[in-house]
Design brief:
About 35% of the residues lie in helices and about 10% in strands. Strands 3-2-1-4-5 form a five-stranded parallel beta sheet, sandwiched between helices. Helix 1 links the parallel strand 1 and strand 2. The protein is an alpha/beta fold. The chain has one domain: Rossmann fold.
Amino acid sequence: MTSPARAKPAVVLLSGGLDSTTVLALAQRQGFHVHALSFRYGQRHEREVEAARRIAARHGVRSHTVVEIDLRAFGGSALTGDGEVPRDRPVDAMGAGIPATYVPARNTIFLSYALACAEVRGAADVFIGVNALDYSGYPDCRPEYIEAFERMANLATKAAVEGRRLTIHAPLLALTKAEIVRLGMSLGVDYSLTTSCYDPAPDGEACGRCDACRLRVRGFAEAGVPDPVRYAGAGTGR
């Protein structure tokens, strides 16, 4: 690992979930010192912000900023409105169509903030935990989207014009959830700090039935690793 004195800065989008926490640990393993960026955007699963705070503290990031925006002003998603979060869907059917939990333009908004943060922090690297293989329903999780945003960022910033080109890293893009879990375990990630549920109980207990829970549970099962979070009822999510 690069010594702290020589480490390069990077911005990591940290939601508090399994994928973004794995990416944070991977960025640190690769020798970056991390400026973590999280969002309270009116999401019904707002407990993920507190999870992100715990994770950022556990990993000793250089800075952790929680940005307050309110995407409820636009609605259009079960995560920012009163619509029903899909439950008990077969995992193999989740990639068919765009789900009700898609938040319009969310990754574009988050990456734009990350771009601004990177310019100010002197970072040429931004990490995001999008994954297209296990869950292909979100249009802003596709590799062509990440490539397009990177091209735009390198046209739109003072840093790029002056020679500091930005790279957007999406290292989990082609991994299964089981592969992500195994990677995180090899990096020493404490997954008990993370939360994935779209509709948790007030005490933080995961529902075990939403898409995010079902994908997470299957990933841990296929990886042969116990999932440390609490689920309502049997919580198999399979």
